[in-house]
Amino acid sequence: MLIAILAAAVAATSVVPRPADSLDALMGPGISRELAVYRAARISHVSYDLSLDVTGHDTAWGRVTIRFDRADTGDVILDFRGLALDHAEANGRALAPLVANGAHVRIPAAALVRGTNTLAFRFAAGIAAAGQSIIRVHDRTDGADYLYTLLVPADANALFPCFDQPDLKARVALTLTTPRAWRAVANGALVRADTAASAITYHFARTEPISTYLIAFAAGPWATFTARDRAPGRAMTLYVRASRAKEVEADTLLALNARARAWLERYFGIAYPFGKFDIVLAPAFPFGGMEHPGAIFYNEESFIYRERPTLTQRLGREATIFHEVTHQWFGDDVTMQWFDDLWLKEGFATYMAAKMQAALDPRADAWKMFYLRNK
């Protein structure tokens, strides 16, 4: 993820958690540091069972079941600013009236228990070419449509009700219903696909604990290229628009990602920390890349060249790959507590990308470029 995201970071402040009986101020727009501190002290062991139907043109309909442990007897506040919140339950009982203001949902203490709780919501989220949590790209070459999520840095709550702060990691099980001709990729490995007359439902494995801004899926009539590895679970698949499949250097991109993963495993002495590793070339993607565990998104225009690429272009693409793969360890596995440390994960990924490129590709003159671009 590009360091330009820093512009969206929230300045650090010294915060004292509010008592449970004075939460009204935490229900305002955005996610305050104060709200994050209040929740982190009380909420743990979060999981999301998330189901989305994206067969509609501009609206995704969904259901989410949220499980978490609660350490005290106060109210619980979730974040949601999607299109609609249709129904809500707490521990099997309907919440009526539901306290929601277009930014947050407040669950009263009377509906909760100390220990494990279960919340369930039906909701709707927007799909659009820009400005929504699900981006739709129309391919004028062949008339196909492609969807992908854009939740960074704090937009998961525009998609579904959640605790949208980086330190409340969660295990996520995604079920995604798409038009029948589409393929889908997400953080978790594909478990099965159920085909109906006009749609297909993909069931993905539950992830390791990840922050909400790292939740991702992409869906559309993708062309795919898969690199096999002799070791179990090491296969890697590249997803690219069908209209650009003949232009993409699939073998090169798969090899660079695999090479980066192997180098970092040796350097850190820690195996790749997530269940699978796929890559998506996302059209009209606003960043160079985004490090979603199991489904790294790269900017299509920076990775497919319409003319013979220069050495600078190839080395820049290589550096982007090394940066995003580094994030699998530093950013995804080890994560900032709050957005005031976003600079650290970005800076470290940039530093490690230069270190890796200097070791693997001496022609890059990586440290000189690091000095010129960053220092």
Could you explain how this protein is built, in words?
The chain has 6 helices and 20 strands. It is of the alpha+beta class. Helix 5 packs antiparallel against helix 6. Mean pLDDT is about 95; it is low at about 1-20.
Secondary structure layout:
Elements lengths: L32 H8 L2 E11 L5 E12 L5 E4 L4 E7 L2 E2 L4 E2 L3 E4 L7 E14 L5 E5 L6 E5 L20 E10 L3 E4 L3 E6 L3 E6 L12 E4 L2 E5 L8 E5 L9 H19 L9 E5 L6 E2 L4 E5 H4 L7 H16 L15 H19 L5 H8 L2
Parallel strand pairs: 1-11, 8-9, 17-18, 18-20
Antiparallel strand pairs: 1-2, 2-8, 3-7, 4-5, 4-8, 6-7, 9-10, 10-15, 11-14, 12-15, 13-14, 16-17, 19-20
Helix pairs in contact: 2-4, 4-5, 5-6
Summarize the structure.
It is globular, with a radius of gyration of 21 Å.
What is the straight-line distance between the termini?
A: 18 Å
The best one-word shape is globular
Give the count of helical stretches.
6
H/E series, N to C?
Answer: HEEEEEEEEEEEEEEEEEHEEEHHHH
Structural class: alpha+beta
